[in-house]
Every structure is written in C-alpha cells, then in structure tokens.
Amino acid sequence: MKFTKQQWQWIFYDWANSGYGILVVTAVLPVYFKAVAQDAGVSAANSTALWGYANSLGTLVISLLAPLLGALADYPRFKRRWLNLFTWTGILLTFALALVPPQQWRALLGIYVLSVIGYSGGNLFYDSFLTDVADDQQMDLVSSTGYGMGYLGGVAAFIIFLAAQLSNGFGGLLSSYGVARFSFVITAVWWVVFAWPLLRHGHQRFSVTAVRNPLTDSLRRLMTTFRHVRQYRQVTWFLVAYFFYIDGVDTIFTMATAIGKDLGVNTTMLMVVLLVVQLIAFPFSLLYGWLARRTSSRTAVLTGICVYLFICLYALKLDTLFDFWFLAVLIGTSQGGLQALSRSYFGQLIPKEASSEFFGFYNILGKFSAILGPVVVGLVTQLTGKSTIGVASLAVLFTIGLVVFLAVPQSSK
C-alpha cells in the first residue's frame, strides 16, 4: 500500500512525540527524578510511588475533559486547532523541565504533570485524525505504521541523548544532571520539527454540521450519545475491555525504569535496554498489522493481551538482569502492536463524522485507566516493599480486559 501525503503527515506526528514518550516518560525523567528525590532524602520505594501518583494526576484533567474536547473538535476545521493548542502546551512545558533546578523535585513533578496534559490532549486529536486520513480497510496498516515509525523516531531521539550519556556529557561539557536536562531540550525540538506538517496542514475530512454555539451543542451531543449508548454495543463492550488492558500496558511503560532501578540495574544498562525495546517494537508493530490483515484485528488484539498477561505473571520471578531483559524484549514485541490495533479496531467501529467525540471516550477510558494502574502498583509496592509484586498485581487488570474483550460482539473487523 502506498501512503498519501496526508497519511505520512499523520504518521510522522507519532515519530515527533515519541521522543517525549521515551526520553521524558520512560528513560530519563523517572531516573533523574529518583536521583534528585534521593538527594532530598526520599526513599526508593516512596519515590517510585510518587512517580506513579504523578502519572495518575497528570492524566486526570485531560481524562475528565476528553469527551467534551472531542465533541468540540468535530466541528469543521476545529480538530487541527485543538491539536495545535495541546501540542504546543506539551512542547513548551517539556522545554521548561530543563529549566528546573535539580534540587526542586516537587517543581519537577508539577511541570511534568502539566506537560502530560499537553501530550495526552494532543494525542486525543491526533488519534481522531486517523478516520480522516484512512478508510476502514487502511486503518490497521496506517495505525500500526504510525506506531512503528514512532518507535524509530523515539530511537533516533534516544541515540542523541545516549551519545551525551556515554560521552560523559560530551567530554565533560555537561554534568550528569545536565545530560538529563539536555534530553528535555532534545525532546521539545524534535517534537516541533516533525509534528509541524500535521500541525500546519492537517485536513479534517469528516465533521458535524457547524453551529452558532459549539459548546452548548457539544454538550447536547454528548448527552444524546450517552442516552443512545445501546445503539453502540460493540463500541461499549470494547471500551470496557480497553479500560482494563490498556491500563496495564500504560502502567508498565511508565513504571519500567523506576522498577529497573529498584532491581539494581544501572542507568547505562537501562538506557541500552530501552533502546533495544524500541528497535524491537518497530518491526513487531508492523507484524501485528500484518497479523490483523491475515486474520482479524480481534485476533491480533487478543494475542497482545495474552502476551502482557504472561509478562505480569513472569514478573513474580523477576530477580536477575536476564529476567529484566527477557521481559523488556517481550514488552517490545507487543506494546506498539496492541496499542495500534486497539486504535484502528475502535476507529472501524465508530461513526466517522463524530470521530473526535468517540475518541474522546476512547481517551477518557485510556487515561482513567492510567490513573488506576500506577496507583495500584504504587500501593502494592509500598505495602510489600517489592516493586515486582506491584507489577504482578497488574495481571488482574489484564485478565478482566481479556474476559470482557472475548464478550465483545463479533464483527467482520
């Protein structure tokens, strides 16, 4: 399949903001935060828990607003405006992370929370653009390619950071904390450069009829959707399943480096592991797209859920560096594919003219689940003193998600 210019613009937004995903959320800021928190006398278990709580808080505001924001974006030419607003918020606040003095760990967490709002809000409108750039037959491939290219973009940004890390701050020009702050600058610049085509030229094909008062009309449409939810049985059941299983996916992603530090894995090795995971994720995201085309989106999603359920159970014996590597590779094989095909599966089920509204519900459940998961891991970790048991507790969420997804009414998608 040959992608159109608009599809490439959409795909490269994933490339653009993946630097935030790997450098800020996963690789650098968790380690940097734990270091500055330790300097301030915060214990390892408590700093891990605080990181989980911060991720939960960061998604709460956008979760509450997602359906309304989505409904507002469905009017003609509104979707790109909202995409720009939240994307620029995320970019500027990511740059602000580099300006926080190392001893101000509370301020660091606060700015991170606000940057998550920008990042998550931008993703809401980016996801809803999928129905504008691809038809039902193209969605699995376009979505999985977006995730795959996102991983490559993340690797490219990560390599720039790794060069600074392994060269001791470019031969001493940067301190260890300076290298971390340098990564936040890289992330912001990377995001601007590669998101610009979609931010400037994104074209909204589908929309609801323009009205004089979009806010009032959006609220009315939301109430209508709630009242007629029984008309969307497949959508409703899928969203319930998605709420539970994507919770585990997001939580493992955001807590991975903090857990690695608790196991005694050194920072350099953590960076190498994350780089390998990103490289593995690229071809496997495309492989999941191929699997969906050869079988169905449903089969591919079920495969990904089962892989993650095994990851949680294996975490109970997580003890050595080999175990950590083994789980990291497994995560790399399924993380992108499961998220990409969940997005395209949902996009095939919903009415296209109201895609942002429905992706608002998709995002609110995804974000609310992201609040639940880190809190569960944080509480179990604090109660047991072992972050590996905290990760294993996520098996409950994957099991519920698997059972509910099996109950989703069958379709040809």
Automatic annotation (TrEMBL):
SUPFAM superfamilies for this protein: MFS general substrate transporter
Keywords for this protein: Membrane, Transmembrane, Transmembrane helix, Transport
PROSITE patterns, sorted: MFS
Pfam families given in the database record: ATG22
Top-level lineage group: Bacteria
Topological category with respect to the lipid bilayer: Multi-pass membrane protein
Xref: InterPro entries: Atg22-like, ATG22/LtaA_families, MFS_dom, MFS_trans_sf
Residue intervals passing through the bilayer: 12-33, 53-75, 82-101, 107-126, 147-167, 179-199, 235-259, 271-292, 299-316, 361-383, 389-408
Gene3D superfamilies: MFS general substrate transporter like domains
Protein's cellular compartments: Cell membrane
Domain Major facilitator superfamily (MFS) profile span(s) in chain numbering: 234-413
PANTHER family per UniProt: AUTOPHAGY-RELATED PROTEIN 22
Protein's recorded name: Major facilitator superfamily (MFS) profile domain-containing protein
Organism listed in the record: Limosilactobacillus antri DSM 16041
